[in-house]
Amino acid sequence: MAKTLAEKVWDAHVVRKGDGEGANAQPDLLYIDLHLVHEVTSPQAFEGLRLAGRPLRRPDLTIATEDHNTPTLDIDKPIADLTSRTQIQTLRNNCKEFGVRLHSLGDAEQGIVHVVGPQLGLTQPGMTVVCGDSHTSTHGAFGALAMGIGTSEVEHVMATQTLSLKPFKTMAINVEGTLRPGVSAKDIILAVIAKIGTGGGQGYVLEYRGSAIRALSMEARMTICNMSIEAGARAGLVAPDQTTYDYMYGRPHAPQGAEWDAAVEYWNTLRSDDEATFDVEVDLDADTLEPFVTWGTNPGQGVSLSAKVPSPEDFGDENAKAAAERALQYMGLEAGTPMKEIRVDTVFLGSCTNSRMEDLRAAADIIRGRTKDPNIRMLVVPGSARVRLEAEAEGLDKVFKDFGAEWRFAGCSMCLGMNPDQLEVGERCASTSNRNFEGRQGKGGRTHLVSPVVAAATAVRGTLSSPSDLDPAPESAAVRSSAA
Amino acid sequence: MEKFSTHTGVGVPLRQSNVDTDQIIPAVYLKRITRTGFEDALFAAWRKDPAFILNQEPFSAGSVLVAGPDFGTGSSREHAVWALKDYGFKAVLSSRFADIFRGNSGKQGLLAAEVAQDDIELIWKVLENAPGTEVTVDLGSKTVMCGNVVAPFEIDDYTRWRLLEGLDDIGLTLQHEEDITAYEATRPAFKPKTLPARLS
After folding, report:
1. Is-contact A365 A467, C-beta < 8 A?
2. What does the pLDDT read at residue A22?
3. Is B180 within 8 Å of chain A by CB?
4. Nearest residue to B131 via CA among B147, B115, B150, B118
5. How sure is the predictor about A480, in pLDDT bands with cuts at 50, 70 and 90?
6. H-helix or E-strand containing B183?
7. Mean pLDDT throughout B7-21?
8. Nearest CA in chain A to B109
9. Could you tell me which chain B residue has the CA closest to the CA of A38?
């Protein structure tokens, strides 16, 4: 029978088929190839194991890092916030007790968990990957079935290396055409979310397909898969191809020698069969796509950067209308204001969505030789210590510092308000992160989600801006490198 | 996990869609390492507003939350479920739940009952016209009752069974440990291991 990619990966991991059929079907028990762990969602799971006297079944398929809670300044000093410090110390104690590999603050492999896995070559096609973090969908870029789980499931995976899962429905997101200069992967996924809504993907695994997706780099594909959860989907993936293999080859944990060949032979089977059918198909035209930006307080409330802030009256549905009214009030915006006239206070370049080498290069290419708007604060936070080192080797740190941006150490930083990097009440931020929820970046903070090149152009002009708004316009080569 | 069969308690109308987990519990409260004691963190930002529904009597004593569509979107934090439970909520009604939130609820004995939006609107009206009206959620018959409204709700059969029986997931899975071991023997050699660590 013809299968989609997601179904192939699923079927290859069934330890035990659920009993029963139809509405009475029990979930399948699936084997988990890789479990990523961080400090926030694991302490109660480790404690559960301890209380039940259960071992962690496969430390050799588990890896931990510190990211959510960690500061991005003064990382050589004890963490100032006592509860944060306790949580980090708890992870260190737990990893030692249960034999889990941990990359701590200060280690060259420390960083955002979803940057670390791929960079070490631990994320590979056809795997099942889980983590107590909803942006685990990032790893789907390699053709892995990767999903976020809650702490009870974290404990379940620790104890059994499996998860009970109800089968998903499948949705194809077909993106055909060629992106214009200045338009990037972030714009694709923001447009997808605006199109299908924050609940549109609930119960589905998304597969991103089409010529525009095939043309993207791995890091750009990670940006897209990362935000599948913002469309409500627990997982999103892209079929592996030569781009995937080239990215993986030679990474520390990539297969070597004969095992590499065996792996590639298997990976080549990981694509949706031509005759396979998806439960739903959605089409997006890459040719006409423009830089995208959010105006509201959920990631589905987005428009083209050249558009205006919408009016609640534009929405037919009563719930959407009420949500828009509330969002405009929280965001301090007037309907009808051109998005490009919105002045921001802070620009954040970072997060598991956009903090990899290509993201930093793309932003650096825009700002190189330009001056930052004097009223803007810009934070550049590499996704991992390794990314930071590589960027410094290329001199990108100098580009950002000369521009007037702050060059920080790796971590989740200002993506979520749980470490020192936070917005003040009423502060407005153009952010390359993934969530514009009320208070997400700090209590009362106002978030506009943007791509790295829009973030960079905004830092130059002070208002939400596209690279094409800059004078002089960026060289097309610089903008085209913004595939991330 | 405690068994759940039926619950009756004060209904709280939360007329909002897309109530994300950052609203249910802001990230700053996620630094704790315990599994209980999150009642103060529930809707922490909104509770600073005296007009917020949980700051009004008799809703402050509510145990059935009746919310708009797309409840629990965003982060995977199970702390959102812990906070709702610690506050005293036993059930949440919505026409659509985020997948991870729904899963987390099922693991923790919080009933996430999917009720058609038309019925949610009717229940909202009853609760707003007669604050303090109790809502009964009956898992056996998959029915919710509030005033003169009687509506069906959806929940997957497996979660329903586990809630009714109060079953521990890990214990259930470990009954099949032989299957897990047998599967492990078939895994290809090229699949990566985190140990021993290889570094760049």
Report:
1. no
2. 60
3. yes
4. B147
5. very low
6. helix B177-184
7. 97
8. A152
9. B31
Which residues are within 8 A (CB) of A99 and not within 5 positions of it... i.e. 6 or more apart? A56, A59
Residue A231: exposure state from Cβ atoms within 10 A (0-12, 13-18, ≥19): buried
Specify the length of chain B in residues. Answer: 200
| CA atoms of A220 and A225, how far apart (whole Å) | 9
Which positions ≥6 away from A173 have C-beta within 8 Å? Answer: A192, A206, A207, A208, A209, A210, A236, A282, A284
Mean pLDDT of A313-326: 92
Could you tell me how far CA A168 lies from the centroid of its own chain? 21
Interacting residues of A35 by C-beta distance below 8 A, sequence separation 6+: A58, A61, A62, A63, A129, A130, A131, A154, A157, A158, A161
- In sequence order, the 6+-apart residues with CB closer than 8 A to the CB of A422 are A414, A441, A442, A443, A445
ipTM score over 0.90, yes or no: yes
Whole-Å CA distances, B172 to A130, A159, A162, A369, B105: 20, 12, 12, 62, 18
Q: Which residues pair with A357 in a beta bridge?
A: none
pLDDT tens digits along A266-303 = 999 999 999 999 999 999 999 999 999 999 999 999 99
Question: CB distance B199–A109 less than 8 Å?
Answer: yes
Q: Tell me if chain B has a CB within 8 Å of the CB of A79.
A: no
Q: How far apart are CA A72 and CA A412, in angstroms?
A: 9
Query: What pLDDT sits at residue A478?
Result: 52
How far, in Å, CA of A250 to CA of A248, rounded? 6
Beta strands in A344-477 (DSSP E): 346-349, 377-380, 406-407, 428-431, 446-449
CA distances from A61 to A56, A154, B126, B173, B184 (A): 10, 13, 52, 19, 12
Number of residue pairs across A and B with CB atoms under 8 Å? 225
Helices A151-160 & A43-52 angle (0-180, nearest 10): 50
Name the one residue in this structure whose structure tokens are 């991005």.
Answer: A72
Q: Are A41 and A150 in contact (CB under 8 A)?
A: yes
